[in-house]
Amino acid sequence: MQHFPEIQLTFQEARVLGCLLEKEILTPDSYPLTPNSLLLACNQTTSRDPVTCFTGDEVAEALRGLSGKYLVEKNLGGRTPKFEHCIQDVLSMQRSERAVLTVLLLRGPQSAGEIRQRTDRLHTFSSLEDVEETLTWFIDYPHGPLVRRIPVGEGRRVETFVHLLSPAAADGSSGTVTPSAAADTPAENDWRAAIEARLASLEAEIAELKAGHAPRSDDGNP
């Protein structure tokens, strides 16, 4: 039986929370976010999996849900209300841990190599082992695991990890996706899954090679 942590989010709430965590680091000058900026962040086509087409009402509902769970608060300092996360009041995390959680919220199941690559602008991990250590911290979280390890098998060529803050993520299902993505045929889905599995394998191998080979000094020695 799958056990979930105390924090339980809808797919929309997970996407909104991930966007707030991401934009706090990447665009600090425009953070906290207005509802419109947050809508654009949720539906952007880069660094998101799946790509969504949320409506303003869906984002507003997600913000209400997150507020009720003490994960988001509204800032009324200007003409337009702005929103910021307050996850630090619920989960005590270092910057490295917040970076890993952010990409898991925004991009679904990923290998340790993919996570290291995709967190680069949020936090620089010195090695793949550092990423795995952070993932273990989430898996062994004292109040219940926040991340689950997905072993190799069933079409997966590398071990992947998924957050457990949303049952939709843990079950491998997704929320509102773009019409083009929803209309994919089974054959296209199989082809895409095979390509993504191969890319994940290559990215993991490259990350491991980079982690194990420090650059040499240019002193003429072999």
UniProtKB/TrEMBL annotation:
Superkingdom of origin organism: Bacteria
Disordered, as annotated region: 169-189
A Pfam family: DUF480
Q: InterPro entries recorded for this chain?
A: DUF480 (IPR007432), WH-like_DNA-bd_sf (IPR036388), WH_DNA-bd_sf (IPR036390)
Q: Which family does it belong to?
A: Belongs to the UPF0502 family.
Q: Which PANTHER family match?
A: UPF0502 PROTEIN YCEH
| Protein name per UniProt | YceH family protein
Q: What is the species of this protein?
A: Luteolibacter arcticus
Q: Taxonomy-wise, where does this protein's organism fall, top ranks first?
A: Bacteria, Pseudomonadati, Verrucomicrobiota, Verrucomicrobiia, Verrucomicrobiales
